[in-house]
Amino acid sequence: MPDQRISFSKTGRARYISHLDLMRTFQRAFLRAEVPIRHTEGFNPHAYVSIPLPLSVGYSSECEIMEFGLMGEVPLSEVPWRLTRTLPEGITVHRCYDAARPFKELCYVNYIITLEYEAGTPVGAENAIRALLSRDALVVTKKSKKAKSGETQVDLIPLIHRVDYEGRRDALTLNAVLRAQNPGLNPALILEAIGRECPQAAPDYVSYHRKRVLDQEFQPYE
Fold it and tell me: What is the value of pTM for the model shown?
């Protein structure tokens, strides 16, 4: 297990930085911030950084985690401000701490899913989505690198722990706690199911925001 972790947010235009570009951005940031970290071995060594739950392009988050190995004598309390001043707008490091818990204990992610409607929230949209996500089973097809066909079927219902709803005149917010891994649930699959099963409730625009990462007891994971 790596020695240290940082927690950071990714908002605004930074939402559109891909996972690989984000990794490269942090590798350069550690160098510019003069925070020495462990490097890989071999012919072409590079700074070792790892993000356990890669964030999809376009998603915002206030609870991202990065793992690395700190070298030298830089105090952990100095790492957040040193990194933040070298990072692009929208990426802010909030905390640096010693890793204590294995990644397998990260079990759930709290997403805020906002459905927006240009002509106002359709009548009955909330009830339709509630009924959909309350079914005994809701099977969708998703891409899979492991399947020979390139696709696999997954039942969303066992991967959804809880969904709370808040309706407004032109939007519907889903506050959802979803399984994080083994397997995890990308909330985009929920929107895919809404579009297929109750198209009258399909939004004109949707945004996804990670609010918290949780352990098996639904407590904050650190």
Answer: 0.92
